[in-house]
Amino acid sequence: MKYNKEDREKYSEAIDRMQEGLDSMIDLYNEAEDDVVLIAYEEEVIHAIKKAKETFGDEFIDQKINTIVKEVLSLMEGGQTPKKDK
How far apart are CA 9 and CA 79, in angstroms? Predict the structure, then answer.
């Protein structure tokens, strides 16, 4: 295949843009963190959360769940742990 000067410049620019895109993808991959599951919900709970979100909306249910979790964790910090309760 023969190229003229204009074609060579276009291909060179396209290759440069592809290389930049590849570099960006490599950076994203290198900066990615493993997703750690904080809470292993039971299937029944997952179903209930999904249903509640459909009814009341994501933001509302997320706020309520966060409030409940904060309350439970604050009780644990206050000394109410399973070992002490028994």
Answer: 70
